[in-house]
Structure formats: structure tokens, C-alpha cells
Amino acid sequence: MAPAMWVWPDVCRCNDVVLFATISAVLIIVIAQTYTSSVRYPRNLPRIGRRPGQTGFSLATRWQYLVDCSSLYRDAYENYSKKGKTVLIPGLGARDEIILPGNAIRWALAQPEEILSSSEALVEINQTRWAFGNSSITSDLWHVGLFRTDLNRALETVCAGVNDELALALDTFFGVDADNWTEIDLLATMRMVVAQAGNRFIIGDSPEGLKLCRDQEFLRNNVAVFECFILNGGISGACPVLLRPLVGRMAAWPIWRRMAKFRRHIRLLYEERMRILRLQQQQDNNPGKATPRDFFQVMMQFAATYRTEDVNDFENMAARLCAANFGAMHQTSIQATNLLLNILGSDPEFDTIAVLRDEVARVIGPGGSPGHADHTGSSRAWTKAKVAAMVHTDSAARETLRINAFANRAIFRKVMVDGLTTEDGISLPKGSFVSFFSQPPNTDSEYYEEPLKFDPFRFSRSMNGAAGGDAANNKDPSAGEAGGPKYVSTSERYLSFGHGKHACPGRFLVDFELKMMVACILTRYDIKLPAAYQGRRPRGRWVAEAHLPPHGARIMVKRRRIVE
Question: Which PROSITE patterns match (predicted)?
């Protein structure tokens, strides 16, 4: 989430003011939580940084969560999780979080939803009841389920359009100057590129949707909504439960203002899709007229059949569409930024750009410009098979996610009953939240050679059993997959996308988009780091437990005259 000093007015940039305000806020929140929390943790549950039997956390430990969470998590992982022990750690504000050890993953995944709830944990993390101001959206997350059940079916049918939109977005935001190098703010640029290309998948298969995909005011508002959404989740979630109705609504005000603008933008789109639904009903599904194949149409058709009260509620559908947009774009823009920085900052021995360009030419065709036939007449359209064949790009993307994931925990659950006891004998109180570390095992030298080094082909080499891949260490269950572990693969050791039936359903869309972006950027543009970086990518930044791309990181781009 965005740090406060980058969000609030310039008066808050004074370090002394920020420090005083932050310490005061932490004190107030901790005191309020102490007297209002209904969750009482058992004394035999170890607390990080405390001696056995001690309860609560020192302010120093809570401060460490805010300013040095990486070392806090590493300490908890090495001394508890890796040794099969459950541990309590501080969270944002007055939150306390239970971390289960990695050997408890199967036990946790085997618990039914009424015992350990994934949906309730999701609502708590995102604080959506305040963000959207509509309880029905948080109590019935059917739009999230569609990502799980219908996303793959829609991917291949619309990816040609997404690729076309991606090319247009790059023309706009990377530029077309083939004579001069242009310096761009990478994260800000990729947010706009991903917003345009991602909206083509979400809403772009109709005239009204296509116009919105290319409306920069609409795209900028999308990005602003997502930033406010993350900030609201942090502010509301940090507050004691009794204060959330007040603080949550105050923190959500910027979202409501942006959402009102979002609704104005999509009003004509919604009316267009309602007309299409009526035509389908009147003309026996209207077999003679093409129906949009994007994800919003999937949502509309599902709601028309199973949630008629929702499909006729414009504000409800707008909020669900916004949530779907967030799921499709937020992680993609972060991963695309980190991937490009890692490619540019990788060691010369890998010759990363040349290897990836060669793969694009081999898999997609000369010039790497899918979506049409080449001079032989053979189709070069994107397909799932071609995406799967981009093994080196896949490896670079997985390696980026291993090192630079936004989230550092996974498999979040809310305890819904009393009396649930872990395998190591800890009674989990009702209302508490449990999760597993994902980033610490991803950078554990026991499982990965040179774990902090970006090795773009670590995973693609593993298909041959070469040293350095997971197969060589033989510790990652996903290493046994045919062709080596894939970007979208999950395992009990690799939790960047979660694991089990609630693993991130949008990861397949991210996979498609990242590979399209790499192919399009590397074949259309020369890219490099600014000279000031001396060939090294700038380090990412931790904001509490979120791991973000470096603020303001820039790259140089120039359009290639000849696409090889």
C-alpha cells in the first residue's frame, strides 16, 4: 500500500511531523485495541520477540513491522515456521497475525470454509465493506468465482484483441520515436499500459467498451481507484474493530468519489450490455448476432441467470466490475515493472534480452507480432500452447515473482469456530486470522542456490536437471512438473499465488499478459537502464509487509526501426 508521506499533502513531508504522527497513531491504536479486542490468544502461542509466557508485543517490535518487516519475517520464519511451530506476529496497526508453519498447509487446506474461511479473510484484508459501501458485494463474491470458473474459457478467444490493444498502448505510452531515447517512469507507465490492455479483456469486446479502453481519463481514474483501494484497506484494517465504521467510511471517501466518476464512465457500457441481454432473451439467444466475449459480458450473463437482483442494480454491477478490474490489473502492473527491471539488471552472462527475443521469434514468428498471418500464410495468433512454449520468458517471470512478490504471506483464513487446534497443539481463537509465509521460503538458501540473485533461467534450466533450478535441489514439489515448474504453478513450498482451490484465479490472465508484454516490448523497442543506475536495477521498497517496485524507477526506451 502507498506510504502516507506519498499520499497526503506536502505539509506531511516533514520527517519530524510524520514520525510524531506515526508514533502517536501506533500508541493510540494499540491502546484502543488492547481494550476493545475480543480475540484472546492462548499463552502457549509463541510471540515473536517475546519470552515464553509473555503476552502482547513491545512497541519496538510493532515499529519493526513498519520499518523493517523483511527481517522480522525472516526471524519468525527461521525460528518458528521452518521448525514446525506456530507463531504470533504483529500486523498493521493493532492487528496480530497467526503464522502457521509450512508443514501445516495440508491441514489448513483440508478445513472446510465454515471452519477456516477464505472469503471472510479476503473481506478483512481488503476492507471491501467500507470501500464499496455495499454489503451484498462482500457477502456474495460471485464475480470472484467467475474468475475461477470462466476466465480460462475467455482467455484465448479475446487475447488477439488484447494483443492489438497492447500494441496501441505501447505506441501511446512508450512512444514511437526511433531516433532518440526516451526516459519513462516505469511503474506509472506500466499501470497505464496494463489498464488499457487489461480493460480490453474485461470490457473491450463491444463498441462502448472499446472506447473506454482508449479513454485516458477513464484509465487514470481506474489507477486512482486502485491506489485508494489499497490505502483504504491499510487504514481501515489497522484500526480497532469498534472504530472501523467511522474510520472506514472516512478512509473510503476518496474511493467513493472516484467510484462515482467510474460509474459515470461506464453508464453507457452498462446500458449497451443490458440491451444485448434483452435481445438475447427476445430472439432466443439471438444466434444471428455476435455477443461480446469479454469478461464483463460473462458477468452480465451470469447475473441475468443467477443473480437477477444484481444485474438490474447498476451500482452493484459497477462495483463488481471495478473489483474485477482491480484483480486483473494491480498485480500485473507490479509484476511487469519488476520483470522489466530484472531483465535489464540481469547479469551479462545470461544475455537475457537476446535469449528472450530469440524465443519470441521462434514461438510466435519473425517479428514477434501475433494476431495475423505471416508471409507463409500461417497464423501467429496467441494460443495457450504458444504461451506455454515461452519457457524462458516463463522462467524469468517466475523468478521475478519469487524474489519481488508484492505479498509476502499467503493462504489467508479467518477462524470461524472455537476449539480448533493446530497440529502443534495451539488452540486458535475464534475471530483470529491465520496465514503462511511465502517470501521467506522463496529466498531460502536451503531450497534455492544464490536465493537473492535474479537468475532469469533458473526454472527453464530445471527441465534438463541443470544446477541452479528447483530440480537440482529437489526440494520444491512443483519441480517435478513436466518441463519444470511454470509461472502459474503453486506448491506447498511456492505460495506466491497461494495454493489449493483458493489459489489466485487471475494468475492465468497475468501469465498471458506478461508474455504478451515481453514479446511486444522486446521486439518493438530497445530498452536500457539510465546511465545513473550503472547497470543495476534499483532496489524495491518495503512498506510495512508490502514489497513494492522502486519508487520513480526509470528506464530508457527507443522504437526499433527494424523488427527482426
Answer: CYTOCHROME_P450
Report H helices in 68-185.
69-79, 105-110, 118-126, 128-131, 135-139, 142-173
Residue 312: per-residue pLDDT: 94
How far apart CA 342 and CA 356 sit, in angstroms, is: 13
Q: Is 543 left (phi over 0), alpha (psi -120 to 50) or beta?
A: beta
pLDDT at 561: 85
DSSP, collapsed to helix, strand or coil, labels residue 193 as: helix
The alpha carbon dihedral of 41, 42, 43, 44 has a sign of: negative
Pairing status of strand 433-437 against strand 182-185: unpaired
Give pLDDT, residue 287.
Answer: 55
Core vs surface per residue 35-59: b (16+ CB within 10 A) or e:
eebebebeeebbbbbeeeeeeebee
Separation CA 221–CA 199 (nearest Å): 13
214: burial class by Cβ within 10 Å (0-12, 13-18, 19+)?
Answer: middle
Name the one residue in this structure whose C-alpha cell is 518441463.
483
User: How does strand 433-437 pair with strand 420-421?
Assistant: unpaired
pLDDT, residue 155, reads: 75
Contact 203, 321 (CB under 8 A): yes
Q: What pLDDT shows up at residue 438? A: 95
C-alpha cell at 5: 508521506
Distance CA 392, CA 490 (A): 18
* Cell numbers that stand for 135 in this block: 454489503
Strand partners, 99: 87, 435
Query: 135 in helix, strand or coil?
Result: helix
Q: Would you say 213 is a known binding-site residue?
A: no
Local structure of 87: helix, strand or coil: strand
Q: ∠ CA(335), CA(97), CA(506), 5° rounding?
A: 30
CA separation for the pair 559, 182 (Å, rounded): 9
- As a whole number of Å, the CA-based R_g of the chain is 24
For the chain, residues with pLDDT lower than 50 are 1-14, 370-379, 466-474, 477, 480, 563-564
For the beta sheet containing 554-559, the strands, ordered from the edge strand earlier in sequence to the opposite edge, are: 182-185, 554-559, 525-528
